[in-house]
Specification:
Elements lengths: L25 E6 L2 E6 L21 E2 L8 H13 L4 H7 L3 H5 L2 H9 L20 H13 L2 E7 L5 H15 L4 E5 L7 H15 L4 E4 L5 H12 L5 E4 L11 E6 L17 H12 L2 E6 L4 H6 L13 E5 L10 E6 L11 H12 L3 E5 L8 E4 L16 E3 L4 E3 L6 E3 L12 E4 L3 H11 L16 E4 L9 H11 L4 E4 L12 E6 L13 H13 L6 H7 L4 E6 L5 H7 L3 H14 L7 E9 L2 H14 L9 E3 L3 E8 L2 E10 L2 H20 L6 E8 L5
Parallel strand pairs: 4-9, 4-10, 5-7, 5-8, 6-7, 8-9, 11-21, 12-19, 12-20, 18-19, 20-21
Antiparallel strand pairs: 1-2, 1-3, 13-17, 14-15, 15-16, 22-25, 22-26, 23-25, 24-25
Bound molecules: adenosine-5'-triphosphate (ATP) and zinc ion.
Zinc ion (ZN) binds next to loops.
């Protein structure tokens, strides 16, 4: 069961039961004054059956009708808890649907008695498999022959990875009438298309209930429904986000991790697990095949799938490749615009505006990427130098013109834009820099004279914006994406939300307006993220090669940069992920960074930066005596990049080792000491501390 957070109780608690309960049984047990959900984790050691100490309390109820959670599932939870330094109960509970916690035994029995949806209502019209391209066929053959184990599918954007997933799943399910598949995607609401495809493909075969979704956008009853269907074996396919890695799938045969490089597979609170890494672990534990797919694999997975070479046995994953686009289309031609050669303060180069205008006139769509929402990141006074700082965070509040607000994107603090400078009264306060709102506005001005083709009804250019602001309301994102797919939009402006996975058919030009920021970040993973973001967004252009040819058009990716000589752009121009990866791995090896070393972050939040750092420094000294300490480097405590959020000071300490085992051992022994430290004088003023194993953001 879930014990109170940070109580330091990491192990299961012991209860009395009238008869032996098999491990994995779901029960209700008393905890303090409450009755909570629990999972029987195993039999208590005889001495725990308490000669001394408190009298054991009995189990309150057994959730009848639910088969016990499998040993494989419990092992997964045990491993995740140990590896990510959390309590077993916390991880187990996080892996179960929230509503299961609230239901009593009777309520659950009633819920289980409810009939599943009839197999007849198969939902939308079916979707027939396509004849695989030669590359798809080769990959499917390797998967068929490959058996259990992990595979990395490196497939270009538009190479038809989705079709490979669909057919690999179909083969598994057809081979065994009970087999189940788990398909994970980074953010399901970004790809409503995909869910529809799976339902259309498998609904007619196995009934409407055969495909269930699992993600945080669902209501609690929906999540319980999906979980039960999977646990009881009624669902054959679970399609979900990172949380789905904990789905109870008694007959799991295949796990697919789409866009395996995506940072959203890493949970950023509570147990900070990587769903991708757990998927690989789970596949190995359960003898299931694991298929990781991406056009730009994470460097960890790329390195992990290297072929054997002399003296090197190679990686643990088998690498599969689909370099070509379906329909023999080309990847977009990459054009770098040297912003040093543009007139000062140019935001959109004349060449780019012209290229967009031409495409609008031909009835093609363009897409502009700017990874910053709002109108302008800062509002400033030209007289006294006042800037729109957030009073609670070490960050500026962003100017949103639409509702004339200044909003902090870190703590949410929002105010109306002041009429005059709050510091000196000057009326002339101005936005500095630019976000998607402003880009949309400027674009409308620059393209004001452009007409759409008469054949399509003519009229002025239609610009749309997709970002976290424009899609705040339920269903809004799906509606806006549908508009783009229908061709009701000529130019789409947006943040990285528009870069991912969408199979847009009429986009022929993609532009990254200002990607330079990530080139010089202090986070060693920033170039990797930038490269994949650019590759991914470029991949939205020219996906329908037949239509493109009929248009007499070419797909292009434009990049505005002040650093056109940067090697990252060189590799991007050639669509050469392997070259980029090789260069990055070289640097990582030289600097002993992952995947050549293993990291964890110890973080402390406190009222003052001194307290936070002091706690970390003391924590570091506290493990000096451990035998592993020599093999695990602990760097000095430093403030986070955004050091203060909502009046809380944040500091972190990087912990690194070339030995994963040494790092894990040290962390395990550190845990109880950190709890003790928190209670002591060094813990004064500490609000919370946490450990992030294999951190993605440094
Ligand atoms: N064998 C095939 N025959 C015809 N069309 C196909 C085939 N396989 C895939 N397609 C089509 O090709 C397009 C691209 O496929 P898909 O979206 O799966 O690419 P992807 O590899 O997932 O790309 P990305 O990484 O950019 O998301 C889709 O419209 C898909 O329907
Ligand atoms: Zn703030």
């Amino acid at each position: 069961m879930q014990t109170p957070a940070h109580s330091g109780i990491a192990e299961p608690l012991t209860y009395l039961a009238a008869a032996a309960l098999p491990a994995g049984t779901l029960v209700r047990v008393p905890l303090g004054q409450r009755e909570v959900l629990g999972v029987v984790w195993g039999e208590a050691a005889p001495e725990a059956a308490g000669v001394e100490g408190p009298v054991l309390r009995p189990v309150a109820a057994v959730l009848e009708g639910l088969p016990p959670l499998s040993e494989g599932w419990r092992d997964l939870v045990d491993f995740a808890a140990r590896y990510y330094q959390r309590a077993v109960g916390e991880v187990a509970l996080a892996g179960l649907p929230p509503q299961l916690r609230e239901l009593g035994a009777d309520q659950l029995a009633r819920r289980l008695a409810r009939k599943p949806r009839a197999a007849a209502d198969a939902g939308p019209a079916g979707d027939t498999p396509r004849t695989p391209t030669p590359e798809q066929a080769a990959v499917l053959a390797e998967l068929r022959a490959g058996g259990a184990g992990a595979f990395l599918l490196h497939g270009s954007t538009g190479s038809g990875k989705t079709e490979v997933y669909l057919q690999a799943v179909a083969e598994r399910l057809a081979a065994d009438p009970e087999a189940q598949a788990l398909v994970m995607v980074p953010e399901i609401n970004l790809t409503p298309q995909l869910e529809a495809r799976f339902v259309a493909r498998f609904g007619p075969l196995y009934g409407a209930g055969a495909v269930v979704a699992m993600h945080s956008g669902m209501t609690n009853p929906q999540r319980l429904g999906s979980w039960l269907a999977a646990h009881l074996g009624r669902a054959r396919i679970v399609l979900g986000t990172r949380m789905a890695v904990f789905a109870s799938l008694p007959k799991l045969a295949l796990i697919v991790v789409d866009e395996e490089h995506d940072p959203s597979y890493k949970q950023q609170e509570g147990a900070r697990y990587s769903a991708r890494d757990l998927a690989v672990w789970r596949g190995r534990r359960e003898g299931a095949q694991v298929l990781l797919g991406s056009a730009t694999p994470s460097l960890e997975s790329w390195w992990g799938s290297r072929p054997p070479a002399d003296g090197d046995p190679g990686g643990r994953y088998r690498r599969l490749a689909m370099p070509s686009r379906v329909g023999a289309g080309d990847l977009p031609a990459v054009r770098l615009v040297d912003m040093n050669l543009q007139p000062p303060r140019t935001r959109l180069s004349a060449g780019l505006v012209d290229a967009i205008a031409q495409r609008v006139a031909r009835g093609e769509q363009s897409m502009l990427l700017l990874n910053r929402r709002g109108y302008a990141p800062v509002l400033a006074c030209g007289d006294c130098g006042w800037k729109s700082e957030c009073p609670h965070c070490s960050a500026y509040r962003v100017f949103h013109k639409i509702d004339r607000s200044l909003r902090c994107h870190h703590c949410g603090f929002a105010e109306r834009v002041p009429r005059a400078c709050p510091a000196c009264g000057n009326l002339d306060i101005a936005p500095v820099g630019r976000g998607t709102e402003r880009l949309e506005e400027e674009l409308a001005e620059l393209l004001a004279g452009v007409q759409r083709p008469e054949a399509d009804g003519g009229g002025p250019v239609r610009i749309a914006r997709i970002d976290a602001d424009s899609t705040r309301h339920e269903g809004e994102l799906a509606r806006q994406l549908a508009q783009v797919h229908e061709g009701a939009v000529d130019v789409l402006v947006g943040t990285q939300m528009i870069a991912k996975g969408h199979d847009f058919r009429r986009i022929t030009l993609v532009a990254a307006v200002n990607p330079d920021g990530a080139l010089f970040s202090s986070d060693f993973r920033a170039p990797e993220r930038l490269f994949s973001l650019l590759m991914q967004s470029g991949g939205r252009a020219g996906r329908d090669s037949a239509w493109l040819a009929a248009q007499g058009s070419r797909a292009e990716m434009w990049i505005q940069t002040f650093h056109p000589q940067h090697p990252l752009f060189g590799a991007l121009r050639r669509h050469d992920y392997p070259a980029f990866a090789a260069q990055q791995l070289e640097e990582r090896r030289a600097a002993s960074l992952p995947p050549f070393s293993f990291q964890a972050l110890l973080r402390a939040d406190a009222r003052t930066q001194e307290a936070a750092q002091g706690f970390l420094t003391a924590a570091s000294a506290d493990v000096e005596d451990l035998p592993e300490a020599a093999a695990v480097q602990r760097y000095p405590a430093v403030p986070l990049t955004i050091q203060r959020v909502a009046n809380v000071e944040r500091a972190q300490m990087l912990v690194e080792s070339e030995s994963r085992v040494a790092l894990q051992r040290l962390l395990a022994q550190w845990h109880p000491r950190l709890h003790a430290l928190r209670r002591g004088p060094e813990g004064q003023g500490i609000i919370r501390w946490l450990v992030d194993v294999d951190p993605q953001l440094i």
